Amino acid sequence: MAAKKILFVSQEIAPYLPANEISSFGKALPQSLQGKRFEVRTFMPKFGNVNERRNQLHEVIRLSGLNIEINDNDHPLILKVASMQPVRIQVYFIDNDDYFIKEDSDIDAFGSNRADNDERALYFARGTMETVRKLKWDPEIIQCSGWMTALTPLYMRALYTPDNDAAPKPKIVYCIEPSNPDMAPIDTEIVRKLIEDGLPHELVEKYSADSMDVNTLHRIAIDNADAVVFLTPEPDQELLEYISQKGIPVLSKQDIDEKGVAQFPDFYESI
What we know:
By secondary structure, this protein is of the alpha/beta class. It has helices at about 20-35, 50-55, 95-100, 115-135, 150-160, 190-195, 200-205, 215-225, 235-245, 255-260, 265-270, and strands at about 5-10, 40-45, 60, 65-70, 75, 80-85, 90-95, 140-145, 170-175, 225-230, 250. Strand 8 (about 140-145), helix 5 (about 150-160) and strand 9 (about 170-175) form a beta-alpha-beta unit.
């Protein structure tokens, strides 16, 4: 039986960013699956505090060079890669100085307080989708973790077409991290920017009346996901009710703490 292809799209992965519960999960889960009925590839933003020399990142010229236009501005896509040890998983870094270079005003590794977080998430989602297309590697499962990845389910659901015409549309899992009180509001122009980037009007127009906070991003992801994983023991009640209305499978933080990453193959099969 051919190995099942899983694409992990993560906001943070240890050791590229400091180890914490979320970044360690971003490392442990792909490593636990690689080679065990699964073929794994991983994407994350190349934030400015990722040490390229220590982690042996190098640019992949054949995958770089695309210009992504956002709000009438061109942003070149730079793709770098490293090998996550000890199981040698390919980690692809989406890089662009306009969005991911570290700024003095950043309050954390992701710049959660920036006013352009909508564009940063859009750029990362588009860059990930275009790179997967270039790789001609059709994932069967896509797991996205963190608010920075929240637009990726939308792009992969609405605009991605598998290289193999016979390949089914991938199943999408979205992981919600603990809330961040310092997260900046989302630009109210996000819907216009998504439509200008080719997203169907009927898919995104409904968010125009949304609260335009991080839960807006989460709702966009949930609407395009087949399952949700909570990486926080205290999930937002508003999001819990929203997911309940969708009727999609949910894996709780308690489930993860009790059973670990070993339960994920069965969880994927249940979707």
